[in-house]
């Protein structure tokens, strides 16, 4: 039972891969439609219809907001056109929000990924990221299936919990503690 609830949300992990692609897909070329795109505040529309609004220094993005053609957006700082530092990524079409740290386009440091799936179903993943992968203690909170919080060692590249400790807090305050064995057996 516990495993199936975790696996139902594998799509969240694949969203992370999409997030990385999206925040790194900021075009360096486009049309400066307002302000000073060399050194100052400006608005640039890229060749792939990404709108960048923010600060420029020596022709590079420094800090601002990118809005993509699908209405998703990334807001934060940049180094060499790559997201760097604390950021907020919103994807209204998928009801997703990521807040956390990136380092030269890679998820690094603490982060929180939230997705509202329906009015009765949502998931929040909180953890520490190292080079785009969850590393160490990860908390997955659900608003479905009787379980309200899972704490696992980390998530593997296929979206499954990694071998290690597992705790599940149920809505009725019951607590399950155990271990995930290789092959995702509880």
Number of strands: 13
Number of helices: 2
The rounded distance between the terminal residues' Cα atoms is 10 Å
User: Which range does the strand content fall in?
Assistant: over 45%
For the CA atoms, what is the radius of gyration?
19 Å
Taking pLDDT < 50 over at least 5 consecutive residues as the criterion, the unreliable ranges are 1-14
> Helix and strand succession?
HHEEEEEEEEEEEEE
Helix content: 10-25%
| Mean pLDDT reading | 76
Structural class: mainly beta
How does the major sheet shape up? 13 strands, antiparallel
Shape: elongated
Spatial order of strands in the largest sheet: 1-2-3-4-5-6-7-8-9-10-11-12-13
Structure commentary:
- The chain has helices at about 1-5, 10-25, and strands at about 30-35, 40-45, 50-55, 60-65, 75-80, 80-90, 95-105, 105-120, 120-130, 135-145, 145-150, 165-170, 175-180.
- By secondary structure, the chain is mostly beta strands.
- Strand 1 (about 30-35) and strand 2 (about 40-45) form a beta hairpin.
- The protein is elongated and about 60 Å long.
- It starts with a helix and ends in a 6-residue tail after the last strand.
């Amino acid at each position: 039972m516990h495993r199936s609830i975790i696996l139902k949300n594998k799509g969240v992990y694949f969203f992370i891969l999409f997030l990385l692609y999206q925040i790194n897909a900021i075009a360096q070329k486009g049309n400066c439609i307002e302000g000073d795109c060399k050194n100052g505040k400006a608005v640039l529309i890229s060749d792939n219809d990404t709108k960048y609004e923010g600060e420029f220094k020596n022709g590079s993005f420094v800090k601002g907001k990118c809005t993509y053609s699908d209405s998703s957006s990334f807001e934060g700082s940049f180094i060499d056109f790559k997201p760097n530092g604390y950021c907020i990524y919103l994807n209204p079409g998928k009801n997703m929000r990521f807040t956390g740290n990136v380092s030269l386009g890679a998820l690094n440091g603490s982060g929180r990924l939230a997705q509202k799936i329906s009015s009765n179903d949502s998931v929040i993943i909180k953890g520490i990221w190292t080079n785009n992968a969850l590393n160490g203690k990860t908390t997955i909170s659900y608003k479905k299936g009787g379980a309200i919080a899972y704490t696992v060692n980390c998530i593997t590249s296929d979206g499954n919990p990694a071998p290690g400790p597992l705790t599940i807090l149920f809505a009725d305050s019951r607590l399950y503690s155990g271990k995930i064995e290789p092959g995702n057996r509880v």
